[in-house]
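Posted in: Protein Modeling Q&A

I'm a second-year student putting together a small comparison for a lab meeting, and my supervisor asked me to include a predicted structure for Glycosyl transferase family 1. I've never done this before, so apologies if this is the wrong subforum. The sequence is pasted below exactly as I got it from our records. If anyone can share the structure token output, I'd also love a short note on what stands out.
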Amino acid sequence: MTSGNGKHIAFYAPMKSPRSPVPSGDREVARNLMDVIAAGGARVDLVSELRIYDKTGDAQRQNDLQETARQEVRRLLDEMPPVDLWVTYHNYYKAPDLIGPAVAHARSIPYVQIESTRATSRLTGPWAGFAKAAHDAADAADTIFYFTANDLITLERERFGSQALVHLPPFLPQRELPEPSTLDGPMLSVGMMRAGDKLSSYRIIAETLSHLEGDWQLEIAGDGPARAEVEAMMAPFGDRVQFLGQLDRDGLTAAYGRASLFFWPGVNEAFGMAYLEAQAHGLPVVAQDRPGMRDVLTPAAYPAPEEGPEALAEQINALLTDPDLRTRRSAEARQMIATTHLAPAASARFWAAVAPLMEAHP
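Accepted answer (user: helix_wrangler)
Welcome! Here is the predicted structure, written out as tokens:
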């Protein structure tokens, strides 16, 4: 068996249901995962929408959610039809899977996780109960799929028994590449405007712009509560910087399609779906060399954060003044995305790993 033809898969995301009305990257990844699993020929059911999430480290909330989860386990064991595999997306200390291991064990079916975090430092302190539950859930997994090499470090260190750790590169939900960019328009940055890491990336962008040469232009797609701060950072550059606001899919596709390059420093990005989208359109990427992003960027000499905005500006100046360099980088980016980061590749990797598990549990 190399696909899921005729199989029935239980899917669960403790942090946020794929059906949540609140947009987020977590919700989109969960939806995309359900789609690529189903692409293997299986029926994929979201078997529970119980949200297990403690943002603040509240021991009473953790206790209450654990009791609610026990009730949900009993409900599922009474009501859930036979399934061949349980898949949980995003198990970590604030949102542990309190349901999947118990149901999978009772039903004698394989249990796998996608994106699971081991956080031994949280086994003491306000999240101790949930951290232990997340750790135990990870131990229960026959296979854990990880997105980046950075994720693998703790998973490998604390691997339980003969548990398999399988690389599932971040992917775009489509089967084919979009039309390539013309590479002759303004630079493009895409990011939410909120305090913290996103604002730090915008600050680096503003610092970098002051070192650029020639007649450059930048479009910024995104919005959020820190927009006024971002606009103030960019004010010295006048109409060279244009704010596009929050774009829908068609608007964002159009922005990628006319951009000359994609510029986003990537402060503390897990990997950043916008990097995949930009490279699918063939945009050369200017970013800093940071963990996680290395897994989704074409091989190149990205400057280290400590090299500062001057190093980023040097890369931008080189790309803007050399159309042949842009064209070469564009072709490399599209080739990498087509080979590794589209839905068919993700579906094939998933089923290659789980098919043997289900064969062992007839």
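A couple of things worth pointing out for your meeting: The mean pLDDT is 95. The CA atoms of residues 11 and 147 lie 18 Å apart.
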